[in-house]
Amino acid sequence: MLLLVIGAPLLLLALAVTVFAMRNERQQRLRADVAIRERVAAENALIQLAHTTVPAITEAVRRHDIPAVGVEVPPELRETRFAELLQTIATGHAEALRVVSEETRAMVERYGEQRRISEVQSAQEAARADLAATSRAATSAAVRSFGTSVVSLGTDLGQVVSTALREHRDDAIYETLTRIDHTVQQMIRQAQSYVIVSGGLPGRRWPQQSLTDVAGGATGRVREYLRVRSGQSDRVVISRAVEPLVHTMATLLDNALRYSPPSSFVEVGFQEGHHGVTVIIDDAGMRMSPEQLEDARQVLSGERSVDIHDLGPAPKVGFPGIAALARRYGFSVHVDGPNIFGGMRAMVYVPSALLVSGAAPRLPEPELTAQAHVPVPVLVEAESRGADVHEITSGGLPKRRRRPVAPDPAEVSAESGQARPDLAAAWHSGSRSGRAAAAERTTEGTADEHTGSR
């Protein structure tokens, strides 16, 4: 009877915690879905503005008609600040065209026929160039603003998921939250690519990291990260170059994984030289044609600059974003093929100016109390064996690895007091350093200056 009296409240408490965890997980999933839908809707609205609305306004003004300046906005974005900004861009574009058109006609009336022709042509050329520059600047600003908002919201959502991962130890909830966090990291990387191509900064700062941790952080931002096999390097990257290199390597890894067979691996190696370290990424996938290789070489070397307006209705911002980061931060990227696997090789050369001497700094290991961090042992179902584990490097970068196969029930009973302490330590360390850094905006001055590309 005493056991029933004590056990009943504990059972009710366990049920309440489980219900709360499931409700919280469902809310996080809904937030992630809403963020993804809004990003897709905003991209479609910008494409509609650049390729339909603005040309229609220009043509109407050219025919001396009253242009219709209504902007089609997806239902998800109606009555939002983003929709107002699009309408402002369209209205300003129409008004600027109207003013230029009226001034041009006045100039034509004041001058003689020969002089009028010459000056009209010059005025129209200047007007077109000015309007094109204004339109490009406005569109880039809109893309940059929206992308930055998505990165900020994604970072906030990632922090909420990270907190939930530390608090909920049920394997099913843990696995679901990990998938949500992985999706959020991919969403942030995609949004960052648009921000970078539009002239913005990556938007996140990290402490100094070893190249091994940089590669691990990049691996955590790609879909099929379990197919990545990385080497080791103790060389340390300076703080301001960590996020650009993580983003660059994540984009190259995503490209390699996307265009290689699902049964193959992508190899990441490090070649240390006198003037720096080269990160080598090899895949066994499709090779680029000579024309594609030459186009990639021109973009990555900076011979041909690319902005968001040159990418068409289905923009591929991977290589242009990498090229922008390489120019700003002083590293270089090359692609070549075939490699020893018959696929493609991507190389990221990190000069000594972006490296520091010595090993990566390590934060002191936190003390783990049994009450705070030791979870109740949970038997893992067969389909959960080999699930992925979310970890944090000493500098705060999220990375992932394969979770070890769950032990037999007898082993769980014998080792229940040691369930996942290393994981709890990693999360505790990450919460003190990296997660705080992830929310910060980079404060670099103007002096510092995706998606598959095959």
What does this structure look like?
With 454 residues, this protein is of the alpha+beta class. It has 3 domains: 20-167, no CATH class; 209-363, Heat Shock Protein 90 (2-Layer Sandwich); 366-432, no CATH class. Helix content is 56%, strand content 10%. It contains 12 helices and 10 strands. The chain has helices at 2-62, 81-110, 113-167, 171-197, 211-219, 239-258, 290-301, 318-329, 370-373, 409-414, 421-432, 434-438, and strands spanning 209-210, 228-230, 236-237, 266-272, 276-282, 332-336, 345-351, 355-356, 388-392, 398-402. The strands form 3 sheets. A 5-stranded mixed sheet has the order 2-4-5-7-6. Helix 4 packs across helix 8 (318-329) and helix 7 (290-301) runs parallel beside helix 8 (318-329). The longest helix is centred in the N-terminal third of the chain and has 61 residues, at 2-62. The protein is flat, with a radius of gyration of 27 Å. The model is unreliable at 363-387 and 402-452 (pLDDT under 50).
How much is the radius of gyration in Å?
27 Å
Strand proportion: 5-15%
**What CATH architecture label of the largest domain applies?**
2-Layer Sandwich
**Structure classification:** alpha+beta
List the uncertain runs.
363-387, 402-452
Indicate the percent of residues in helices: 55-70%
End-to-end Cα distance: 70 Å
CATH topology type of the largest domain: Heat Shock Protein 90
Main sheet attributes: strand count, strand direction, barrel closure: 5 strands, mixed
> What is the level 1 CATH name of the largest domain?
Alpha Beta
Q: What is the count of β-strands?
A: 10
Number of domains: 3
User: Strand order within the widest sheet?
Assistant: 2-4-5-7-6
